[in-house]
Amino acid sequence: MKNLKNIEKDWLQIPINVKVSREVKQRIWYNIYTATIGKKRKFTYQVAAIILLMISLGGLFTYTTFYRPDVYIAESANRKVMLKDGSVVTLFPGAELTVTKSFPEDTRIVNLKGDALFFVAKDKLHPFIVKAENFSTKVLGTVFKISQSRKDKFVELYEGKVAVSYSGTKDSYLNPNQVWTNFGIVRTTAIYTKKIDKQSGKHINKIESLSFNEVPFGEIIETVKKYYNINILYPAEISTKKISAELKGNIDENVEALAFATGMEVQKANNTYILKK
């Protein structure tokens, strides 16, 4: 009678067809082998398998309990999240907040996707940082709102002070009733103050500063036109030229600064500015 090794050798030599591969044959042979060598060794394998399973589950439990970040998602309605430091975050529909298990540490850091309102517990020694999509907001204790719609980013401050960091730009510092935005343009920042017009009673936005860092001239002009409600004409061939500019004066001074950066002069006719070489 052939021993087990010879049986295995003969089995593996059976011609391979489309239904039975060599791998499948090996797996079937392993089952025959374990059944043949007796219950004792089979029991040993079962115990080993159980131990491995327990180790795996234990590792998963440890990771879930002590390491895996907590993720809070607001699906179809607002969701209020109370953090360990006493801060309260209201997530708007579709928003997602990720908080590490180690929160709060020396620096309180959370990650945000979507829109949320923050009531940050005051702590002068431990800054609170919200990392959003391509920008972050740093505070010590304040009330603010973050909005993210595709490329457009906004931070609106209600109470306290915040610093906003955006890739490729200088940090921006907000006071209450001020809003930081990138106008949906990379390496661009703007700060405006929300006010109420005394005569009409309407809400108005007063631009405090505009900053562009190596941004195509055409995108800068379109932004200035839109938010100052003016018309600017310029040579089409320079629309792709990238320039840097910080605009803080009145509209006349700002248009002059843009013209100077591109080596042009300005002529004004009513509400239209004409840039010429």
What does this structure look like?
- The chain is an alpha+beta fold and 277 residues long.
- Helices cover 27% and strands 38% of the residues.
- It contains five helices and 19 strands.
- It has a nine-stranded antiparallel beta sheet with strand order 2-3-6-9-10-13-14-15-17. Strands 1-4-5-7-8-11-12 form a seven-stranded mixed beta sheet, with no helix packed on it. A three-stranded mixed beta sheet has the order 16-19-18.
- Helix 1 packs antiparallel against helix 2.
- The radius of gyration is 32 Å and the shape is elongated.
- The model is unreliable at 16-20 (pLDDT under 50).
Task: Offer a few descriptive terms.
nine-stranded antiparallel sheet, seven-stranded mixed sheet, 277 residues, alpha+beta, 27% helix
Largest sheet: 9 strands, antiparallel
Number of strands: 19
Global Rg? 32 Å
Order of helices and strands: HHHEEEEEEEEEEEEEEEHEEHEE
Given the helix and strand composition, which structural class is it?
Answer: alpha+beta
Shape: elongated
Distance between the termini: 102 Å
Low-confidence runs: 16-20
Strand content: 35-45%
Per DSSP, the total helix count is 5
Integer average pLDDT: 83
Please list the strands of the largest sheet in the order they lie side by side. Answer: 2-3-6-9-10-13-14-15-17
Share of helix, binned: 25-40%
